[in-house]
Amino acid sequence: MYTIYIQHIYKVHDIFFISGLFQSSDANEVIRASGEYTLEKAKKKAQERIDHLFNVSLHIAVTGESGTGKSSFINAFMGLADDEEGAAKTGRTETTTEPTPYQHPTMPNVTLWDLPGVGNIKYTAETYFKAVEFHKYDFFIIISSVRFRENDFKLAKEIQRRKKKFYFVRSKIDDAIQAEERKKTFNKEKTLSEIRRDCQENLKELGNPPVFLISSWNLSDFDFEKLVFTLNSELPEHKQYALLQSAPVTSVALLEKKVDMFKKLIWAAAIASGGIAAVPDRPGLTFACDTVIVISFFTKCYYAFGLDGRSLEKLSERVNKPELKNLEKAPLLKELAASSALRMGWSAAGEFLCSLVPGLGSAVAATTSLAITHDVLENGLKVLADEARKVLTVAGLEKGTQ
């Protein structure tokens, strides 16, 4: 546990500083969590991890023949209605003639690309691969609303040849289920198995890749969660950060995956934030936690967990639960909703960070040791995760995928 010896408190531009000695046996545990044994090595790794969390780019290519629901899938992933500003253009005919980027609304370093269909008359199979600039993308999602056809197969073979990852998505599954429901012998699980088997029949030469059944109207149904988990397991670690932050929360399992990711990065945020100034044998040292990193960390959690007003409104409409828009917010959530990390006043930031560690006075809000900073991050993450779990309970998604 940490102990605090305060020698002097002074204030500059609404930020309190403490001159004194912070002693912490927990500090070494935070450093060990990095997998390193020295502070210098831990600092270097922490900066790398935080840079990956905040800045790493991810480029997702969505392709397939015209009319298969590519744009609808992109909009669903980004949490946008088809007619909302920033959404991919949808239509019954091919609406994309050039590779078109769509920046994620809360994760600007994540871009989904709507690629023209392979069967687009503007391209032959040979010119298509050069025109879409394959090298740009981290992986490809090939979408079909029926069985996969020859063009899909050719596209997959070319992607495979270039040693890139591809994933097959059978879209509009809700429509297929509704069509089958009219039959007296209808069995949902049997119907889904038959659709999956029918799709895979055409893909045997590719090594029987999995086919994910998805409804863009409701990502909580069917295989969206499996798709995200598969992508997450096959991406490099630093790309996983971007994927998990940007994927919409559609189940408890997906939320917990996000929470676990942030838990594993607490040590990095604590070290990178400036709490590393706590050196036990240096009495009289001034300690100042970099609240920008700490608040930015919480802001990342806030959007990744779908706690912003826009995400709550969309979820409310999808599950028909108006009460989601009016949930009583925890104090931490109110602070994050009030302003972004960079706009939040230093004094306000210090006050609410302080509230995350019981027993600390407001005077030490912005002046923490490494161990205290770690506790601030740990407690704040718990508050946000609990809030997100409450949202899923109200939405009726507490038991996982519907």
Automatic annotation (TrEMBL):
Gene3D superfamilies: P-loop containing nucleotide triphosphate hydrolases
Ranges for domain IRG-type G: 56-234
Pfam families: IIGP
Region (Disordered): 85-105
Record has Acyltransferase as a keyword: no
Gene Ontology, cellular component aspect: membrane
SUPFAM superfamilies: P-loop containing nucleoside triphosphate hydrolases (SSF52540)
InterPro entries: G_IRG_dom (IPR030385), Immunity-related_GTPase-like (IPR007743), IRG (IPR051515), P-loop_NTPase (IPR027417)
NAD found in the keyword field: no
Gene Ontology molecular function: GTP binding; hydrolase activity
Keywords: GTP-binding, Hydrolase, Nucleotide-binding
Recorded family membership: Belongs to the TRAFAC class dynamin-like GTPase superfamily. IRG family.
Protein name according to UniProt: Immunity-related GTPase family, e4
Taxonomic source organism: Astyanax mexicanus (Blind cave fish)
